Amino acid sequence: MIILMRLDATKEQIDQVCDVIRQHSVEPLVLPGEDRVAIGIPASLSSEQRTDLEAALGSADGVSKVTQTSRPYKLASLEFRPQKTVVKVKGVEIGGGDFVVMGGPCSVESYEQFRGSADIVKKAGATVLRGGAFKPRTSPYAFQGLAEEGLKIIKQVGEETGLVTISEVMSGDMVPLVAKYVDILQIGARSMQNFPLLIEAGRSMKPVFLKRGPSATIDEFLLAAEYVLNQGNNDVILCERGVMPLDRGYTRNTLDLAAVPVLKEFSHLPVIVDPSHGTGVAKYVAPMAKAAIVVGADGVMIEMHPNPKKALSDGSQALTPDQFTALMAELLRLSAYIRT
Ligand code: PEP
Ligand code: MN
């Protein structure tokens, strides 16, 4: 429910409306707008609560109108927060108008491999360095990542190059450890509905990069974001990385690019596209990355490797240094063109 106050509503009238809402055992959320204040009620209300509140607030002083929100998520919705969220990390703005490229290997394998990747990514013009230290692998026998040693490498390389760093955290109890070493916490597709993890990531107050689960609907995706936002952490970045494919023989996932304009219509959160996991095939990464710009994404996350054939994970979708550099140049040109 959203209560839109009149343009001339006084502070006392706003406080009074908040008091009425609290008397109904729910917390109001004051949402200052450009010209007037709105008051949101993020909690799900019973039909009785809704009717009572509507009756109590409809005639209250200073109220212009009471509307029902149409979606189950609240804090993530554009209805609740009409201003776009810009996540600012060490001078990089995600969602602020510049097209952001996050590049790096799937996994951190050694200092040399990660530093080499960082140098290529930085030289090409990307501003965020990715690399997994804890890897969610389908098989327990596959490379699981370097764990804390990998996090130390990420921190060191981040400091040496000045790049913003991002890495995955797979469980709630690991959040403090990962948060100590990296700038942005990545929540992987497989963990999108790991609710204790979402809550801990929210509490860390670090920016959270939330990947869409392979079978998650838009509502489920935004409700997962809602868990983080509900902890008072507003720095959430959404990532479309492909959903279950119809035909695994050709692509690893189906990159749902239509999700980008949909998310932009219903949410204020920045949206990044991951064409690497979205296709699973290196040669399909460039066209889908370019398409991401055209559909309005705020940036892309792209896997690269100094030597993809030797990669310990996701080598088949990793770009070579030359491919990454060439794509980056095209992306910069295309985004400049689209935005003029
Ligand atoms: C990754 O970014 O390396 C990763 C494991 O991604 P996802 O969670 O989208 O599969
Ligand atoms: Mn990967």
Give the SSE map:
Blueprint: E1 2-5, H1 11-23, E2 29-32, E3 37-40, H2 47-58, E4 63-67, E5 87-89, E6 92-94, E7 100-104, H3 111-124, E8 128-130, H4 148-161, E9 164-168, H5 175-181, E10 184-187, H6 195-204, E11 208-211, H7 218-229, E12 236-240, H8 259-266, E13 271-273, H9 275-279, H10 282-294, E14 299-303, H11 321-338
Parallel strand pairs: 7-8, 7-14, 8-9, 9-10, 10-11, 11-12, 12-13, 13-14
Antiparallel strand pairs: 1-3, 1-4, 2-3, 5-6
Helix pairs in contact: 3-4, 3-11, 6-7, 10-11
Bound molecules: phosphoenolpyruvate and manganese (II) ion.
The site of phosphoenolpyruvate has 9 residues, from loops.
Which descriptors apply to this entry?
about 350 residues; alpha/beta; eight-stranded parallel beta barrel; four-stranded antiparallel sheet; 11 helices; binds phosphoenolpyruvate; binds manganese (II) ion
